[in-house]
Design a protein that fits this description.
Blueprint: H1 11-24, H2 33-50, H3 57-64, H4 73-87, H5 97-108, E1 124-127, E2 130-134, H6 141-154, H7 159-173, H8 180-195, H9 204-210, H10 212-221, H11 229-245, H12 253-263, H13 269-276, H14 280-292, E3 296-299, E4 306-309
Antiparallel strand pairs: 1-2, 3-4
Helix pairs in contact: 1-11, 2-3, 2-4, 2-9, 4-5, 6-7, 7-8, 7-11, 9-10, 9-11, 10-11, 13-14
Bound molecules: adenosine-5'-triphosphate.
């Protein structure tokens, strides 16, 4: 029988999925280059700071711009690698194990010997002097990872939930000698970006960093029969907070109108009012503005005609 990770859909999860889905509808999927850059820097800073990298966002920016930075050489290398790994987001297939290995090789280039391959030895997570997680034996790792990817390929779970479950299960397996946190977070972003491209631009890692203690706790209290329910709730909360607190581009009313017209050029004013959530008079005002500025043209009669986007 194929593997199914244990978790429960709680009311909190359902509510967060609804809240995030609603919020995401108001954001641009298109690239805004300045924000893309700002948010990518926040992402890289956040995901590396969780693991103890000391570079500031200014230093991460300098590395991105190819400027010299006074900092430990391996930390600068971590930043370079993470920047390259996040640049791969458009080309990686979230359901391919080979692509995971490729991402890991990029994330760990020049830092450890075992790059782009599963660990050969034991692994664990240590807090102070205490081992808080003993990862499964190395021989089992390829099978466990394959089972997890098979689940990801075939599940009809909502991507918001599936990506959190994947993230937790991945950290539990701890497939690599190092870089499990960074690669797991990258993979969740990858899965989410295939659902809504805006996720490439959302610095979720930055908010995870803000709640680093809670992130570790959510992993620690997950597991057993109850599965990763607490972790799913935690990460969905982080995504919801990212959507409300970070600088991301909101769609304007006119952009929503143009999108609706692109889908249906004969859409009526009343229908547009429904889509945008404003009055028909409000729609009229925006249609006039769009026509005046040359973005939109009416062809044919008022009743039977169509809109043409210029
Ligand atoms: N109790 C736990 N069980 C499993 N995984 C955990 C637990 N607590 C934390 N983790 C995960 O393990 C990650 C740390 O693993 P690992 O050291 O391989 O990652 P990393 O990206 O290389 O970090 P570092 O730069 O510190 O080496 C954390 O970021 C978190 O995702």
């Amino acid at each position: 029988m194929s593997y199914k990770p244990p978790y429960t859909i709680t009311p909190k999860i359902t509510n967060l999925v609804a809240q995030i889905s609603e919020a995401i509808g108001g954001y641009y999927a298109h690239e805004n280059l300045r924000l893309h850059r700002v948010n990518r820097i926040k992402t890289i800073h956040g995901t590396l700071a969780i693991e103890g990298n000391t570079l500031s966002t200014e230093q991460v920016t300098a590395v991105l711009e190819g400027k010299p930075v006074v900092a430990p050489i391996n930390e600068v290398q971590e930043v370079r690698n993470a920047l390259k790994a996040y640049e791969l987001l458009d080309t990686l297939d979230p359901c391919k194990v080979d692509d995971l290995l490729k991402a890991h090789a990029t994330m760990e280039a020049g830092l450890i010997d075992e790059i782009g391959c599963f660990r050969k030895g034991g692994a664990g997570v240590v807090s102070g002097k205490t081992v808080i997680h003993y990862a499964p034996d190395a021989e089992r790792v390829p099978f466990l990872v394959n089972d997890l990817f098979e689940w990801l390929r075939t599940t009809d779970e909502h991507p918001l939930i599936a990506s959190c479950v994947f993230h937790y299960e991945f950290e539990f397996i701890h497939p690599f000698a190092d870089g499990n946190g960074r690669t797991g977070r990258l993979w969740q972003t990858l899965i989410l970006s295939r659902w809504r491209p805006i996720f490439k631009n959302l610095p979720i890692e930055n908010i995870v960093y803000k709640y680093q203690k809670e992130y570790y706790k959510a992993i620690a209290v997950s597991g057993g029969k109850a599965g990763c329910t607490p972790f799913v709730e935690f990460i969905l909360g982080v995504i919801a907070e990212t959507l409300t607190t970070q600088e991301i581009t909101r769609k304007t009313t006119q952009e929503i109108i143009l999108e609706a017209i692109a889908r249906n050029p004969s859409i009526t004013r009343a229908e547009l009012a429904e889509v945008v959530g404003i009055s028909p008079d409000g729609v009229k005002y925006h249609l006039q503005k769009l026509t005046k500025s040359g973005r939109l043209k009416r062809v044919g009669s008022t009743r039977r005609g169509e809109w043409v986007i210029e």
